[in-house]
Amino acid sequence: MNRNEMIQDFSRSIIQGNAGIFLGAGLSVGATYKDWKNLLKGPAKEIGLDIEKEQYDLISLAELIKNERNRAYINELIINEFERHDVKPTQNHNILASMPIDVYWTTNYDNLMEQALEKAKKSIAIKRKKADLATYRRDQEAVVYKMHGDVSDPDNAVLTRTDYETYDTERILFKEALEGQVVTRTFLFIGFSFSDPNLERMLARIRHTLKESSRTHYCIMKSVDENVEDYEYQKVKQELQIKDLENYHIKTIMVDKYDEITGLLSEIKQKTLMNSILISGSSTEDYGDFSPEEANKFISLLTQKLLENKYKVVNGFGLGVGHAVVNGALDYRDTLNLKGVGDRLDLRPFPFQNPEKFTEYRKEFISDVGIVISIFGNNKNDKGKTIIAEGVVEEADIAAKMGKILLPISLTGFAAKKIHDKYYQKNFCIDFSFVFDEEENKIEKLVDSIIKEINKLKG
Fold first, then answer.
1. Against a cut of 0.85, is the pTM above it?
2. Are strands 386-388 and 378-380 parallel, antiparallel or unpaired?
3. N or C: which end of the chain has fewer CB within 10 A?
4. Alpha-carbon gap, residue 290 to 320, rounded angstroms
5. β-bridge pairing 312-315 and 345-347
6. Cβ atoms of 146 and 109 closer than 8 Å
7. Strands 276-282 and 371-376
8. How many angstroms separate the first and last alpha carbons of the chain?
9. Taking the CB of residue 155, how many other CB atoms lie within 10 A of it?
10. Which residues does the annotation mark as catalytic?
11. Which residues of 272-309 are buried (b: 16+ CB within 10 A; e: fewer)?
């Protein structure tokens, strides 16, 4: 499938709030955990089997090892490998955790995805066993479904043939929950081989039930290495697998190296963040060439139009700007006869009791947006003189270092003009002064010009 088309489609699903991630063992291998072939290699040799001859049926191999040893032996394999404290989430885990996605499914026993989500300061719920599916946390921002169990409870982990045979009775609620979500969400499969019999049966059931109404899903797959001994055979097999996945409405994105997955996920994240916009600014009732009425109209109308165009607005509730942003959101709400605007308005008031934390706080919320609109930006010094708000300038500097798009509205003066002049030659900025050539409806023209530019940037 075309890479750009996939990025566009999956990013749209994230923005709409109906995207999901399915993590396979491949992502954990990138963090230095062993895959099942390498994990079972030693135990297979102990019972007289060659892992190379058994690698295509590891589920049955695990069953044979359990029969020759016992379940406790299998449990120790899981614990010794997946409780290693030297393994940390990969960059791919961290990118996935930083995106506005609220559902993560995995067949992995490790807790790397949970660690990455906690690092991203998200409140998470973890579903390890069927009893967990009956609980709900009001503050949960993401849910991690451990489809095959967890290292914390290896005795109930799904690994052997018997575990798979009893899945429909022992963990049927997981299967039903995933089936429901695959119907309503768009999933991205990463590090997954599609050899899991449970998932295969579930996808087949959905395909036969919904037929052409099934949602499109995506997977990332590495091309067969040309240096492998049976390259031509493996290449044909992979091509056949890709065609088979299309029968389940799963489109495949090919990469030549695993490192390319990081770049692909970064592009999806960047595309998604373009839907979130920071309105950065402050004013101590001094709006330069704007009257207070014009300034408030401009800020309110800009917020309203951004929301109407389905953007998320982030604001630090700066003096003289924050209230106008809220008023614009209320105008949007009233226009559509809504009770509220949901999570489309994200206010981040500063912790004024801890000013030493301002810079880190700014980095935190700027990392969640793709575009920074700088307006006005002034405060008063100890003598009551109006000066440039350096905090607004700092926000632009942080954004520039993060690779965000800057849209300082130089017409509003103060920090916005300073930012414009500083970055104009670097092609970060656009001059909107042309919209003030005529006095009539100048606020409306300015806002419309900004919205048009943002829509072009978003693509």
1. yes
2. antiparallel
3. C
4. 13
5. parallel
6. yes
7. parallel
8. 19
9. 10
10. 148
11. bbbbbbbbbbbbeebbbebeeeebbbbbbbbbbbbbee
